[in-house]
Design a protein that fits this description.
The complex is a heterodimer of chains A (54) and B (253). With 54 residues, chain A is mainly α. Chain A is built from 1 helix and no strands. The longest helix of chain A has 50 residues, at 4-53. In chain B, α5 packs antiparallel against α6. With 253 residues, chain B is mainly alpha-helical. The chains are: A mainly alpha (54), B mainly alpha (253). At the A-B interface, α1 of A face α2, α3, α4, α8 and α9 of B.
């Protein structure tokens, strides 16, 4: 195959960008769910504290 | 109410959209990957080498579908943005903003693969040619939309500002499309036409069609995934998100 190094470089760019696109989307969802969990945990802890103080 | 209209209204509900996106995004990715895998295999091993460009022309099979996607995604983003601006539909804001990073990715692929192909064929990595320059401006527009959306804390105000930029930026698309016609360009003219006659040999067309379909399917998966993430971000603090996050933890255990 002629110009093999150029072909490999071009296809690598394609794979890397699409791979990043795939990973970035999934990481965003994971981050949002983690934030939601910690928010729920904080609000549960707050409600327990206020119950004890009454 | 017509069932389709009713479905569209239901889709606007954040929890329903989350379930819809979670269900269909893997299908988009999976089918896209399968179709592109076949397209890439055909492009690399089944199609004969070009008589002038030799094997370097195989870069076209990723460059052309990515270039088409970079324009199509921007047009779709502008459409969603216009709907969001006029009718204030939150889901359209989310979808418009989800288009931007995906479109930027395809634009990066277009510029990088074009540059890699240009080195052996034109003897240079880059030329301030109208087609190349306008495609670079498109990348800056995508980055502008992403930057603007992330620069403002209020999600809805941010989406409106970025949507306006997307709508204004759509004027660039015909300039990119016809740049090789309007100006004397180093970039080759149109070789592939969906409706008219293509100057590319029929034996070389099939992988290109597979890749065009594959990138579209991949885009559906990516759009739903990114829109789902933004939807969750906007709905932080709502009971359904906390419930979903809890269920996700339960599932992980």
């Amino acid at each position: 195959m002629e110009y093999q190094e150029y072909i490999i470089a071009a296809y690598a760019v394609f794979a890397i960008v699409l791979g990043w696109d795939f990973v970035a989307g999934r990481l965003q969802i994971r981050r949002e769910l983690r934030l939601a969990r910690s928010r729920a945990a904080r609000s549960a802890a707050r409600s327990q504290t206020s119950e004890l103080s009454r | 109410m017509h069932p389709l209209v009713r479905w569209f209204h239901t889709l606007g509900s954040p929890p329903y959209f989350d379930r819809f996106a979670a269900r269909w995004a893997p299908w988009g990715y999976g089918l896209g990957l399968l179709v592109m895998a076949w397209g890439l295999y055909s492009a690399l091993f089944l199609v004969p080498a070009d008589y002038q460009q030799k094997d370097s022309f195989r870069i076209l099979y990723i460059h052309v579908p990515s270039a088409w996607m970079s324009l199509a995604v921007f047009a779709l983003m502008a459409l969603y943005a216009a709907i969001a601006l006029v009718w204030r539909i939150k889901l359209c804001e989310i979808l418009a903003m989800a288009c931007a990073p995906i479109g930027a990715g395809f634009t990066v692929i277009t510029l990088a693969t074009g540059s890699i192909w240009g080195k052996p064929m034109w003897g240079t990595w880059w030329d301030w040619d109208p087609r190349l320059t306008t495609e670079l401006i498109l990348l800056f527009l995508y980055l502008g939309v992403i930057g603007l959306y992330n620069a403002i804390d209020d999600r809805r105000a941010a989406a409106r500002a970025a949507a306006l930029l997307a709508v204004v930026g759509v004027a660039l698309l015909p300039v990119i499309r016809y740049s090789v016609v309007w100006w004397n360009s180093l970039h080759q003219g149109q070789t592939i036409s969906l409706l008219g006659k293509s100057s590319m040999d029929a034996s070389m067309m099939a992988p290109l069609i597979w890749m065009i379909v594959g990138t579209k399917l991949w885009f559906i998966g990516a759009l739903l995934t990114r829109a789902r993430a933004d939807n969750l971000r906007r709905e932080q603090g709502k009971a359904w998100v906390a419930e979903l996050a809890g269920a996700a933890t339960g599932g992980a255990k």
